[in-house]
């Protein structure tokens, strides 16, 4: 079997960030939303660096206005997942972009997203689960509202709580209250760390937020003690190599530490993050890992096994995707 055709598990995928440019352009036209500076002449998303990316991301997201818009987005994203052989995905959902952090509005958005996901599971064979996500640079107060949205909808479908956004804004401990709320609601926890800040950010996130998975976490490779701690605690890294290269965390694929992390015994999985923004797909990630590091079918099968074991879903769902 070609490695590109293998069944894949993806644990780090932002729903809005997975919106195809054509989808966002269509929506903008329908709604009369001006989208200045979002696309280049070829119709791709354009941004100068990560911080500009966050602005462009928010501008594009402004076209997504109703629960129905998010339902259509979910369908489009899951079609792309299916085309890439993804059988199970966890997606970050930000209530800040779905009803502005209000619990009642969030429930309506979530309901629409879940209905679209259920239909895609039937029609396309892709299972989706949600991780409610705070946006770090929106601040600690807002993160508590997000955690309330998460706690109010925790269950078989909303399985986790996380945080993305600007890692240079504030400190992990500022968000401990939100993560405590989510933990009490029996949600599993992840946070973006160690993409822009170094190993200390990963260490502080594990210590102060009690996370069991780290979004990116790749810069942990710079600290041998931290690598040991990550292994001892069974923390898994959601690694997105194509994203890291597109944003310049690493200058090229062969400089990316994923192979070193895997060889050092850290649990890693592979995801696309915000695929059209980074000109990638799960097939492209597999192709590049094969070409750069010589990963073969047995390594990819192992990778997916450990991705399934670090998934946040119920044991029942886990056994269905195995
Ligand atoms: C992110 Cl809040 C958010 N959304 C999409 N991609 C991201 N990367 C880091 N934070
Ligand atoms: Zn991310």
Automatic annotation (TrEMBL):
Question: What EC numbers are recorded for this enzyme?
Answer: 3.5.4.4
Q: Which UniProt keywords apply?
A: Hydrolase, Metal-binding, Zinc
User: Which PROSITE patterns did the record assign?
Assistant: A_DEAMINASE
Output the Gene Ontology terms for molecular function. deaminase activity; hydrolase activity, acting on carbon-nitrogen (but not peptide) bonds, in cyclic amidines; metal ion binding
Ranges for domain Adenosine deaminase come to 7-322
Gene3D superfamilies per the record? Metal-dependent hydrolases (3.20.20.140)
- What is the main EC category here? hydrolase
Give any single GO term for biological process: purine ribonucleoside monophosphate biosynthetic process
**Which prosthetic group or cofactor does it need?**
Zn(2+)
SUPFAM superfamilies (UniProt xref): Metallo-dependent hydrolases
Identify its protein family: Belongs to the metallo-dependent hydrolases superfamily. Adenosine and AMP deaminases family.
Q: Tell me which NCBIfam families the record gives.
A: aden_deam, PRK09358.1-3
- Listed name of the protein: Adenosine deaminase
| UniProt organism field | Halocynthiibacter halioticoli
Q: What is the lineage of its organism?
A: Bacteria, Pseudomonadati, Pseudomonadota, Alphaproteobacteria, Rhodobacterales
């Amino acid at each position: 079997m070609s490695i590109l055709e293998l069944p894949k598990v993806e644990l780090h995928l932002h729903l809005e960030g997975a919106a195809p440019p054509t989808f966002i352009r269509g929506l903008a036209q329908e709604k009369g939303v001006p989208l200045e500076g979002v696309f280049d002449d070829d119709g791709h998303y354009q941004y100068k660096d990560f911080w500009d990316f966050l602005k462009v991301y928010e501008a594009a997201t402004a076209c997504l206005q109703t629960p129905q818009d998010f339902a259509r987005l979910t369908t489009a994203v899951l079609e792309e997942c299916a085309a890439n052989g993804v059988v199970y995905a966890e997606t970050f959902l930000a209530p800040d972009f779905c009803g502005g952090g209000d619990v009642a509005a969030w429930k309506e958005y979530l309901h629409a997203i879940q209905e679209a996901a259920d239909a895609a599971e039937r029609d396309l064979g892709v299972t989706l689960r949600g991780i409610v996500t705070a946006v770090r640079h929106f601040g600690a107060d807002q993160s508590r509202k997000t955690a309330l949205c998460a706690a109010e909808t925790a269950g078989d479908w909303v399985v986790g709580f996380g945080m993305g956004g600007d890692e240079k804004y504030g400190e992990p401990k500022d968000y401990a209250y939100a993560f405590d709320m989510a933990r009490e609601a029996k949600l599993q926890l992840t946070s973006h760390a160690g993409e822009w800040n170094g190993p200390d950010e990963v260490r502080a996130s594990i210590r102060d937020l009690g996370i069991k998975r780290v979004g990116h976490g790749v810069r942990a490779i710079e600290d041998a003690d931290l690598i040991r701690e990550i292994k001892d605690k069974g923390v898994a890294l959601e690694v997105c190599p194509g994203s890291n290269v597109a944003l310049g965390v690493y200058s090229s694929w062969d400089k990316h530490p994923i192979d070193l992390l895997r060889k050092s015994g850290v649990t890693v999985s592979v995801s696309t993050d915000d695929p059209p923004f980074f000109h990638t797909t799960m097939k492209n990630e597999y192709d590049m890992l094969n070409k750069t590091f010589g990963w073969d079918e047995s390594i990819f099968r192992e990778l997916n096994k450990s991705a399934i074991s670090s998934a946040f879903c119920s044991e029942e769902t886990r056994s269905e995707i195995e």
